């Protein structure tokens, strides 16, 4: 594989022979030991009956889309056996946002071969970091993920989540139908008045969406698996999630018996949380959008700002020809693949990346 142009970022060169590196497929999670959580996930190309919606062509995991919601506790050894029953192009599972050993990363053509029809692949890794994640195919992703080949993963703290209601809200658009957990329109989750609720919103689409809470003040307590420091109460404010992004929203179910509505980017899909039979506000999309850069309080940085290496990453576009086709092509630091930099760091380096 082409490795790009070595960029040491002003740090020392390393005694590496680039030609004889370690085979990625050997960089697995623990191969021995009984998993704390083990499951088999079977991928199929088949139609999906959207709840309260149409039947669409797509992909399922264990017969549904979204596939399973996997919940583990921090430090658990997770074992997932992927079986490809009928995905013609082959498939993988990529653990979006999870820091896994390279061979468990599920990127077809890079960390493993795609699993062909009739084949299987075992993923094993320790869930080190608490947070809300998801997993999806990384083979022909634009078709398989869009078609529903994904599920969600929650890593709970050892001390528990400390909430009365803790749920995942996977937002996905199938064939133009915006859904929450595979349901078109309004989804319901029953919760008692006064309950502290944590709703983990996952944007599984390939564009930005907004989410918000109507009917109670709320806090954004985590973004992309990282807890925020002292997040304040928000009302009539939306938060933007990039493609693949997650936000954990926390609020108290109103004591007066009403319900709360969580918006999912408009388009009619929303999640209601509250006591059975309660009414929820319409929850029109707020104009105000949360600025995460000024939200909460700065937390101390866990290292000295004394950089071992500094890198520039300038994304640009270059008019020209690629394989004979004219167009505007993406560039990194003015160059196109494979002439783009390969940033080289040593373990433990403090790195400054300027984008
Ligand atoms: Cu991803």
Walkthrough of the structure:
Helices cover 1% and strands 42% of the residues. It has 355 residues and is mostly beta strands. The protein has 3 domains: 5-24 and 304-354, no CATH class; 31-156, Immunoglobulin-like; 165-294, Immunoglobulin-like (Sandwich). The strands form 7 sheets. Strands 12-11-10-14-19-16-17 form a 7-stranded mixed β-sheet, with no helix packed on it. Strands 13-21-20-15-18 form a 5-stranded mixed β-sheet, with no helix packed on it. The two termini are 25 Å apart. Copper (II) ion (CU) binds at residues 94, 96, 136, 244.
CATH superfamily of the largest domain, by name, is Cupredoxins -  blue copper proteins
**C-alpha geometry:** globular
Order of helices and strands: EEEEEEEEHEEEEEEEEEEEEEEEEEE
* Beta-strand residue fraction: 35-45%
Poorly predicted sequence stretches spanning 5 or more consecutive residues: none
Number of helices, where a helix is a run of at least 4 consecutive DSSP H or I residues: 1
Strand order of the largest sheet: 12-11-10-14-19-16-17
**Helical residues, percent:** under 10%
For the terminal residues, how far apart are their CA atoms?
25 Å
**Number of spatially distinct domains:** 3
What structural category do the secondary elements indicate?
mainly beta
CATH class identity of the largest domain: Mainly Beta
What summary fits the major beta sheet? 7 strands, mixed
């Amino acid at each position: 594989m082409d490795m790009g142009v070595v960029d040491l970022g002003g740090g020392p060169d390393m005694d590496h022979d680039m030609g004889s590196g370690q085979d990625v497929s050997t960089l697995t999670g623990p191969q021995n030991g009984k998993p704390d959580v083990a499951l088999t996930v079977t991928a199929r190309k088949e139609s999906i009956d959207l709840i309260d919606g149409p039947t669409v062509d797509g992909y399922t995991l264990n017969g549904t889309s979204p596939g399973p919601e996997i919940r583990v506790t921090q430090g658990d050894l997770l074992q997932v056996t992927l079986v490809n029953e009928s995905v013609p192009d082959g498939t993988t599972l990529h653990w979006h946002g999870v820091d896994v050993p390279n061979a468990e990363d599920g990127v077809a053509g890079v960390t493993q071969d795609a699993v062909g029809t009739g084949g299987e692949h075992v993923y094993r890794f320790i869930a080190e970091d608490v947070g809300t994640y998801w997993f999806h195919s990384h083979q022909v992703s634009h078709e398989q993920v869009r078609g529903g080949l994904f599920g969600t993963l929650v890593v709970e703290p050892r001390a528990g989540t400390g909430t009365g209601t803790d749920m995942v809200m996977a937002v996905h658009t199938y064939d133009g139908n915006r859904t929450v957990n595979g349901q078109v329109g309004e989804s319901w989750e029953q919760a008692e008045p006064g309950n502290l609720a944590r709703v983990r919103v996952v944007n599984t689409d390939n564009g930005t969406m907004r989410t918000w809470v109507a009917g109670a003040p709320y806090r954004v307590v985590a973004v992309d698996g990282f807890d925020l420091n002292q997040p304040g109460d928000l009302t009539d404010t939306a938060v933007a999630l990039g493609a693949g992004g997650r936000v954990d929203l926390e609020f108290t179910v109103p004591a007066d018996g009403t319900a709360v509505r969580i918006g999912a980017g408009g388009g009619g899909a929303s999640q209601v949380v509250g006591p059975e039979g309660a009414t929820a506000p319409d929850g029109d999309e707020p104009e105000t959008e949360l600025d995460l850069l000024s939200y909460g309080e700065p937390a101390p940085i866990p290292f000295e700002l004394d950089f071992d290496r500094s890198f520039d990453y300038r994304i640009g576009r270059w008019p020209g020809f690629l394989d004979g086709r004219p167009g505007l092509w993406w560039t990194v630091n003015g160059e196109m693949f494979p002439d783009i930099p390969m940033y080289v760091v040593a373990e433990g380096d403090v790195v400054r990346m300027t984008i």
